[in-house]
Amino acid sequence: MTTSESTGTVDLVDGVLQITVATDAAGTSLSGAAMVEGANALHALNSGELTAGAVLLLGSGSNFCAGGNVRAFAAAPVRGAYVRGVADEFHRFVVELAATTVPVVAGVQGWAAGAGMSLVCHADIAIGGRSTKLRPAYSGIGLTPDGGLTWTLPRIVGPARARDILLSDSVLHGEEAVRLGILSRLVGDDIIISEAQRLARTLAAGPTAAFEGVKALLQKSDTHTLAEQLDAEAASIAAAADGPTGHEGVDAFVEKRRPDFS
């Protein structure tokens, strides 16, 4: 992909890799094309073949993503094999998304159910509105979660709350989702997508190397002791101070001007 290119589900514009995870087709269910094309684009980003400063996950339509295509599940000759194929495809996307070193933003309008909720939990910053609703939805159709939801949700809300949400198939409204930390912030329902796009562009124009360092430190904190994390932070900030991003940021502060991280 070039600096301004689109495949229909994946767009690279202004340094933002935008992936449309669901459309109005099939009731805003998870797009298989988006998972394949998105995973390929994310792999290119992670391997250095593609340059972007942020990733943006969006839905096109009334919902962010209403979950998997249950009608396709029902129509499959061998349901287990079909669903396994869908899950494997979805999980390749999730693995590449989790490996990204740039910020991941999600604009979450309407419903984020099933796979949609799983994706929201992988975003670094998830923007919703008061009408946003999240629901695991898996047990409602007799299935178990995928997309890493049983891994991310306990880390966001705690194990006990995660068990309650998943077993009760809870519907979480925007304000509660923010309180629990699943959504990062609420904006007006009519500006969710535009605000997510604005934030992604701002992050893409920011100190990419510093963001990479922040994400790396946060990932290490899961398994580090405090002493180990302090050592990691000291090494990271020293490396950042010697890098071009750190030089520009510090010099701009001293010179009382806006830094140019491009």
Automatic annotation (TrEMBL):
<dbReference type="InterPro" id="IPR001753">
    <property type="entry name" value="Enoyl-CoA_hydra/iso"/>
</dbReference>
<dbReference type="InterPro" id="IPR029045">
    <property type="entry name" value="ClpP/crotonase-like_dom_sf"/>
</dbReference>
<protein>
    <submittedName>
        <fullName>Enoyl-CoA hydratase-related protein</fullName>
    </submittedName>
</protein>
<dbReference type="Pfam" id="PF00378">
    <property type="entry name" value="ECH_1"/>
</dbReference>
